[in-house]
Amino acid sequence: MDYPVSDPTVGLVGGKFSDGDPTGAVAPSRDPAAWANAVTDEILNAISDGGLTPDEEDNTQLAQVLAAIRTFGAGTVSLPTVFLAGDTNTGLYHPAADTMAMTNNGVESMRWDAAGNVGIGKTSALTAKLHVMGGLRPLVIEPTSGATDGVKVELGYDGLRFTPAASYQTVDITNLSTSGKIRTFVNGMQNTAYNADGSQEWGTFSLTGATEGKMIVGTSSRVLRSSENTAATSKTHIEFYNPNGLVGSISTNGTATAYATSSDYRLKENLQPLDGVQVVKDTPVWAFNFKAAPEHTTAGWMAHELQALVPKAVTGDKDATRIVAAAVIAANGLVIAEGITESDWQRGVAGISTALNVVTAADGTTVLAMNVSEGEFQLSFDADLPPYPEDALWHATFDITGDPIYPADSTWQAEYAENIYQAVDQSKTTPYLWAATQQLIAKAEKYDALADLLVIKGVITQAELDAL
After folding, report:
1. Whether 308 and 381 share a structural domain
2. Which positions ≥6 away from 113 have C-beta within 8 Å?
3. Given a cut of 90, is residue 396 above it in pLDDT?
4. Of 244, 260, 324, 401, which alpha carbon lies 20 to 30 A from 413's?
5. How crowded is the C-beta side of 461, counted as CA atoms within 13 Å?
6. Are residues 281 and 247 in the same domain?
7. How many CB atoms lie within 10 A of CB 431?
8. 326 in the same domain as 309
9. Does the pLDDT at position 169 exceed 80?
């Protein structure tokens, strides 16, 4: 729409209508009927498109249409307020206070609320900044098509999947169809599993040996388990390495377990005969019981006594201790925790711990949620369905009472001298026992030869010798 500039007979001045100037012999502009009708038709079309019936007596209709365009109506999921021409069921509408939504083909596909939460496929009670619902894996982050780098990430109710853009193996993290277990898969094969009892698996552990795997056990008396599915041949379960290479292993065959340490002749030098008899003679062997198990008598060495003769068989030093600061000590003298203030220990004995960013009911004791920032708590009341009651309280820190952290008979000390106990590797004594046995056999063979000579010389009879 424009002024009738194309008609020179209208008499526009400066491109606009003029009242003229009688003193200057300038005639007033003419208002052509065609142009006036066009202006009126355009105004009437706007009024009609705005949903009103033109009324000659109502001079506010155009203003009403403009106001409606400026403020919008609420609209519905099937007829949104803002839509594209020819597609009236796809656009934006206002489903609730302080909430906007997008509808596609008459079905809500996305909404965002006053708390700044965005929902995709979720039409109510948004509880996170991004709340996605629908399909097996409703959240997908994917590299550009044809990319050789990057990873496609899919998140859904069956877990998390990583698919490299290049031809690498797919990794899944899931607990689908397995109650209380989180498992990872590489190319469809179980790689690890974390079980509800605290145990962990690498591969797929089987008590029957049907599959190969390792397990660290959480609640059983067995700490580490290993299974393999080859009974006829040797299978290495654990290997031990240091900067010198492989120094030991644990392996099995069809019927037995071997505990091996490196002993190849090519690794050794400076070979000397070993006097095992003297070491065995000089090392006391005792029958005793451990203080923790007075009902069980066993036999062995005192570590420091053995250390004097076979130092490689003993770890640690006699009467060694370490100073522990701010220590919590169990009744048996073992350090349970260190770096703990006395007040925190007292709270731990009472089962009191401090939580951050806690929402409680109005009574100040019933916990409704934890790890909720103050800003998130305040904004939550602007949602359609606030997750907390109107009188709920937010606490930056909050004391929660539960199971005791430390035993009731534990103690606390600002400084505590903890015993560092020595230990014995009994296998390191085997070469000395072997050497002593060889020495004794050699002596016995000499005595046998001497006895045979005495029989031959007639000094003693064979019967007398056998009777000895």
Report:
1. no
2. 98, 99, 119, 126, 382, 383, 384
3. yes
4. 401
5. 3
6. no
7. 15
8. no
9. no
Across-strand partners of 102?
92, 110
Provide the residue range defining the domain that includes 82. 8-112
Instruction: Answer positive or negative: Cα dihedral of 341, 347, 351, 353.
Output: negative
In this structure, are 362 and 396 located in the same domain?
A: yes
Q: Is 357 exposed, middle or buried (0-12, 13-18, 19+ CB in 10 A)?
A: middle
What kind and span of H or E run contains 18? none
Query: Tens of pLDDT along 206-242?
Result: 766 677 777 777 665 666 777 776 666 778 888 899 9
Asked if 105 and 167 sit in the same domain, the reply is no
pLDDT at residue number 238: 87
The pLDDT score that the predictor gives to residue 224 is: 73
In a domain, 295, yes or no: yes
Count Cβ neighbours within 10 Å for each residue of 200-235 and write b for 16 or more, e otherwise.
ebbbbbbeeeeebbbbebeeeeeeebbbbeeeeeeb
State the average pLDDT for the chain.
86
Whether 157 is covered by a domain: the verdict is: yes
Both 316 and 450 in a single domain? Answer: yes
358 - beta bridge partners? 395
Query: Does residue 283 form part of some domain?
Result: yes
Q: Are 44 and 58 in contact (CB under 8 A)?
A: no
User: Is the residue at 120 inside a domain?
Assistant: no
Give the three-class secondary structure for 276: helix
Q: In total, how many domains does the chain have?
A: 4
Residue 364 sits in the same domain as residue 462: no
> Are residues 430 and 313 both part of a single domain?
yes
Please provide the distance, in angstroms rounded to a whole number, between the alpha carbons at the two ends of the chain: 138
Strand ranges inside 170-282, DSSP E:
171-174, 182-186, 189-194, 200-203, 213-216, 224-227, 235-242, 245-252, 257-261
| Residue type at 70 in one-letter notation | R
